[in-house]
Amino acid sequence: GGVVVCVANQKGGVGKTTTCVNLAAGLALAGHAVAVIDLDPQANATTGLGIDHRTVQRSSYDLITGSASLEEVAVPTRMPGLSCVPSALDLTGAEIELVAAMEREHRLAESLADAPERYRVVLLDCPPSLGLLTVNALVAARDVLVPVQCEFYALEAVARLMGSAERVRAALNPELRIGGVVLTMYDARTRLAEQVALEVRGHFGELVFDTVVPRSVRLSEAPSFGEPVVTLDPGSRGSQAYRALASEFAERYGLN
Amino acid sequence: GGVVVCVANQKGGVGKTTTCVNLAAGLALAGHAVAVIDLDPQANATTGLGIDHRTVQRSSYDLITGSASLEEVAVPTRMPGLSCVPSALDLTGAEIELVAAMEREHRLAESLADAPERYRVVLLDCPPSLGLLTVNALVAARDVLVPVQCEFYALEAVARLMGSAERVRAALNPELRIGGVVLTMYDARTRLAEQVALEVRGHFGELVFDTVVPRSVRLSEAPSFGEPVVTLDPGSRGSQAYRALASEFAERYGLN
Lengths: 256, 256
Ligand SMILES: Nc1ncnc2c1ncn2[C@@H]1O[C@H](COP(=O)(O)OP(=O)(O)OP(=O)(O)O)[C@@H](O)[C@H]1O
Ligand SMILES: Nc1ncnc2c1ncn2[C@@H]1O[C@H](COP(=O)(O)OP(=O)(O)OP(=O)(O)O)[C@@H](O)[C@H]1O
Ligand SMILES: [Mg+2]
Ligand SMILES: [Mg+2]
Fold this sequence. Notes:
2 copies of one chain form a homodimer.
Chain A: E1 3-7, H1 16-29, E2 34-38, H2 44-48, H3 60-65, H4 70-73, E3 75-76, E4 82-85, H5 94-99, H6 107-111, H7 115-118, E5 121-125, H8 132-140, E6 143-149, H9 152-171, E7 177-186, H10 191-204, E8 208-214, H11 217-221, H12 229-232, H13 237-252
Parallel strand pairs in A: 1-5, 1-6, 2-4, 2-5, 6-7, 7-8
Antiparallel strand pairs in A: 3-4
């Protein structure tokens, strides 16, 4: 069966969406059946995969509220083997609506019960917060993948995220593990990036993927084309990094 | 009297905290009495101003819940004329606690009623979401200042933020205006930055500050020293940009 992995970090702008979109695309290129579920009301993963969030009929909101099944909400992307559950603006209200709901932290997990039969890998793209959408993702997932931008504020955020993941594991999802840590936006010209990388590897050891994603302009340009960089510009450093990350991920999860 | 300005953008990592900390420092250097209120549970503005959020006794949480006054929670920073209301971890639960509270959107506005008498400028640093903390900030402020990172996803976020600000203006705070838009992390080597800047200026015209903040490594290093870049490294491009922004801001708000 497949694995559901939550891509989370409450620090904003660290590369959660870029990692979801490009890691998923890299895995699909290698022949695996993959889905990206966009749990961010900003709908960036939806846009990054070439879907217009304004025309979306059903969304991750329907999945979380239980009014539609995974099969009904998933749509194909331009890449064979890669599906997406898009986000839409109605997700904004979901967190406040969920506060008073029964089993509010388990709604997504229930809707994704059959996901491992449909897909080899499901990636959950989370918004930059530790609210009910991210908690739902942490409960629904077996693993959490943490992108860490090689900057000071992002480093500080990791301890708090690990604390939240531990609280979810203890109270709501005993299976939850740290699946891995990915260093992103590594700028080789700065000492800060090197210091952050050393500190993260010192703290998380083997959990940190060998692949480090460099800062690369093509990565930030790809979303405007609605295409993952791994297909838009296969020769770019950003693409090579995410292809390498995909094969390391496949190795670690025994996908081959 | 002074002015309360909310620095907001639900897109993560666009430079909200960096703008709060360095604009405030630039204004304080010019002799104005300024306060930064950190409304983000991540407490980045608190750290960026040299305060250890782990040792904080009272925080913005007390301000929002009304259990302490502005005078009681504000602490001095290393810079004369610049005070900070620090954030602490208890702010994480505030959003859920506020959902059921009376006047939940007005709590901060009530606590800041005397702020314009105490400070010439108060900057509210918001978390990357449109939840109750940011809504409280939009209700408490007269103006909203929007940092826009010169990247594609960040551009998409602006329309949604303006929609939220308009809803707050119509329902909760009729005084709320768009005070200005600041272009951040402008990388002159990329066409994308130029395209985003053109689009933002085309759409917001005069509201966009002339000062554009370039991408600059010193800006991302400064938080690790707990000091704004304008004092840490006055000659750096980041510092020059925020000093220029501060004088443009002072001009626009008639502070001189
Ligand atoms: N390695 C990289 N090199 C250059 N730019 C990058 C890289 N990774 C991401 N970006 C760009 O940086 C910005 C932030 O990345 P992204 O949106 O993926 O982060 P995020 O964590 O999903 O943000 P949010 O917290 O808002 O959800 C985007 O504009 C993206 O295109
Ligand atoms: N002009 C700049 N040049 C280079 N780095 C910058 C610049 N402005 C901010 N940074 C760095 O980019 C990262 C994001 O900036 P910052 O934390 O201020 O954004 P934010 O919008 O407050 O993020 P969040 O959404 O998490 O609150 C930080 O590591 C910061 O040090
Ligand atoms: Mg994202
Ligand atoms: Mg911030």
